[in-house]
Write a structure and sequence with these properties.
Length: 238
């Protein structure tokens, strides 16, 4: 009986050490819905392949949410790590690490006069209605797009505000407007949509991993190390 108790204690201590070292446990990951059809499949495939091989005792809980709710969930401790596009610049308690960046492209219906060109100047879109994600979905990305248009000499006239990039492309296909989007949206293949390079192509948008700086979760540390060792595939347009 005593030996059994000692064995149970030893097992408990071993389990505690495994948890403390980041080798077992549960890691809750949020991801932006806009990444689901573009970057996320390759990113998750890379992470799962490497992370699960190195840490088979860690269970990954994947939660779909847009950027703003991810930030709130990190503060509320309902997720441990986030994968989001264009992280905010005013967060002091969260850490961010860019995992990739990509240029913007113009999203045009095939019927648009500029769809015949290989590249477009952003100012050429000034007279076209825009289809953009609402600011509440991703404030930093939304503001970046507005700033790019402003720098090109115009304020975009937003006609539609869907909450998913695939819906943006679908509305563009119907002729309801044009859009400015991350280059990886080219993976959303619709027959009536043309993706054209923006010139000059200096502006880029980032995908980042986010975590709580003050919460030294060994599982988060392990995942960040995995990302550093095995970065995700570069998206199209790079």
């Amino acid at each position: 009986m005593i030996s059994a108790s000692w064995a149970d204690l030893a097992d408990g201590l071993a389990a505690a050490r495994a948890v403390g070292s980041g080798r077992v446990g549960r890691l809750r990951i949020g991801f932006a819905a806009s990444l689901a059809l573009t970057i996320l499949p390759g990113l998750l495939r890379s992470l799962l392949r490497t992370f699960r091989h190195q840490f088979p005792g860690v269970h990954l809980d994947i939660h779909e949410m847009t950027t703003a709710p991810q930030i709130a969930a990190l503060h509320d401790k309902t997720i441990d790590i986030g994968l989001l596009r264009e992280p905010p610049t005013d967060e002091t308690e969260l850490g961010f690490r860019t995992v990739l960046s990509e240029p913007f492209v113009a999203v045009l219906p095939f019927t648009h006069p500029l769809a015949t060109q290989r590249a477009v100047q952003l100012a050429q879109l000034a007279d076209s209605p825009f289809v953009l994600l609402p600011r509440a979905v991703g404030p930093t990305l939304h503001d970046q797009i507005i700033s790019l248009c402003t720098a090109a000499g115009f304020t975009p006239q937003i006609a539609q505000r869907p909450v998913e990039w695939q819906t943006v492309c679908a509305l563009v296909e119907t002729g309801l407007g044009v859009s400015l989007a991350p280059a990886s949206t080219r993976r959303i293949r619709l027959k009536g949509v043309a993706f054209r390079r923006i010139e000059p192509g200096t502006a880029r948008t980032r995908v980042a991993v986010a975590w709580r700086e003050y919460d030294h979760n060994p599982l988060v540390t392990s995942l960040l190390a995995t990302i550093s060792q095995d970065p995700p595939d570069r998206p199209c347009g790079q």
